[in-house]
# Entry
Amino acid sequence: MIPPTSIDGTDITGATIDGTDVQEITVDGQTVFTAGPPRPPSGVAYYTFNNADTSGATAIDVWGSNNGTISGATTGVTGANDTYNTAEAYNFDGLNDFVDTGFIPNTNSFSFSCFFKPESGSGTQYLIGNPSVSGDLNHTAGFGVRFVDGNVNVLSGSGNFNGFNGSSLALNTYHHVVVTHGTNWNIYIDGTIDATSSIVYDVTDVEAYIGASDNYGDNFDGSIDDVRYYDKELTSTEVSDLYNTGSIL
# Structure
């Protein structure tokens, strides 16, 4: 299909717009649609954290219907400036900001990826979290990707938590992190394997928060961009492709 040079209400009534034919839509100077990478078979959810994919307090899942609810995070801040995004992100104040995506894939193999720019290296700050909370049926086991005293850290377990660290990272600059689980846990930084571990995975049907463990604390201080969930353990080649091209297809 050759995309039209202009679109009016007659052309698009009842139509579906995707990134195959239309890459961007601007109305009166305001970008209202940006096409993200196509959804791979393993893609569960994708949040660009761009203004065009934000509606009020809703972070739109551009791959599906798993929209997130924004609590306090500031939109429209400078993003990762990667080759497949529009250089916008969400900023988290380190106090009480988060985005509730409402789910996490409950399979034994999955992957999480995002860009993040930490502004503080002290304490525990969650990029994504859903800890075990006594008496809360939505939190039956814990999982988190955290920035702890300057290191990316993965935490998993129920009751007795297990964790491991990646390398120390610089503040005030964007890093791309991918955490995968299958045979092992793996941390990739900027497309390259950084750390691996065989810690126990027992996450089941838990609610996932971006920028916090949940609404109880350990909030992230800085910017987060381009959040994705997959229901498989991405391979090292796929992680490299994701970092360099924005797609694993």
Observations:
- The chain has two domains: 1-35, 44-245.
- The chain is about 5% helix and 40% strand.
- The CA atoms of residues 179 and 187 lie 5 Å apart.
- The chain has a mean pLDDT of 81.
